[in-house]
Every structure is written in structure tokens, then in C-alpha cells.
Amino acid sequence: QVQLQESGPGLVKPSQTLSLTCTVSGGSISSGSYYWSWIRQPAGKGLEWIGRIYTSGSTNYNPSLKSRVTISVDTSKNQFSLKLSSVTAADTAVYYCARDWGPRRGDAFDIWGQGTMVTVSS
Amino acid sequence: QSALTQPASVSGSPGQSITISCTGTSSDVGGYNYVSWYQQHPGKAPKLMIYEVSNRPSGVPDRFSGSKSGNTASLTISGLQAEDEADYYCSSYTSSRVVFGGGTKLTVL
Tens of pLDDT along A65-77? Predict the structure, then answer.
């Protein structure tokens, strides 16, 4: 049973870089031709897709965030990571990592982490 | 503003059926059969309920069904139960990325 777990600081100062890691357990991040996505949700609001990575290192990003986002993968640690630079209060949200079937298999997210709250404040 | 448009809220009584719409464009919902639906209870991660417009993952009750016509996808829940009360989100593939709807709060009266 594959499980995902987000980790990282819960508080980030404005203008700094938000860094989160998602650890995949119960299976290899490299198996099954899956993509791995980051999704966020501000309190009381809807879901926003941030971007995704394939284990080859290929990435796709939300155009609205592309200039500030970097997603990377470390297959040796079974982890993938998110970096969001120049954060503001608008980046305060619950951040989820999720397994993504990818653009050729319906682009559904079938396994989600529990989510981690990140607050941007000085 | 979300890329896909959903009603903010819908409601129904136990046993009844409800339908939630998800309207996009020919570049997303209308252009691909890659619409998914998610259920989210308060404080929990979303759960995949429907993929590729009308397919249910293993374990999702057959009370949940999906369809699409043109640029609008729909989620129908029949035989409403109290535990169906949650937020529901649609998503669609478009141009190498994913877009979500704004979400619909389902209230079971």
C-alpha cells in the first residue's frame, strides 16, 4: 500500500523560499510510470495544482506559479520535493503531495498525503 | 478565479439524487475525456471518486457516477447518505497541466 507523507517547515518568512519534501513509502517512486504532483489549498478555498515531476526528471508547472516553482525528485531516497521562492502571505495554504496518473492515463490523483500547513508570516 | 466552474453549493435529502456540474472549455473538459472528481471531508485529504469522466476506482460505491456533455462534466450521487456530505472538486487535463474547479459543498439535509 503506497503512502505519501509531506514534511517541511510550517512557518516561512515573506520573500524566502518554501521547501517541502514528500516521502513515498510502500512502493518505489520509480515503478508504475506515475507522475508525482504538488497541490495546495488555502484555508476555506479550493484546490490549486502546482506542478508535477516524472522520475526521469521531466516537469510540468502551473503557468501562474512557474517562475517561482521548482520540483525535483530523488529516486534513491524515494522522495520528491517542492521549492517555491519569493513567498508572500498568498502562499499560505495546506500543501499536498499526490500520485498522478499522468497526461496519458487520465491525469487523476489516486493517492494523497495527509497535507502539511505552511504559513507565510514574519 | 478557478479554471473550471462549479456551483458553490448543492443540497439534498437522504435517499435523493443530486448532480454537480463542472463547466470548462473546449481546451479542457470538452477536449479530453480526462475529468476526475474528488470528495473532501473537513480536515482530510481529497479522495478520488471518478476518473476519466465516468470510471470509479475500486471501493467507490456505484451510487457515484460521472458523465460529460460538451464542455460540462457532471457528478451524480444517487441514494444520498449522510456521509456523502462533503466538498466535491472536479479536475481536468489541459495542455500538459491540470486545472481544478472551485469546489461544491454538498449538504445532506
Answer: 999 999 999 999 9
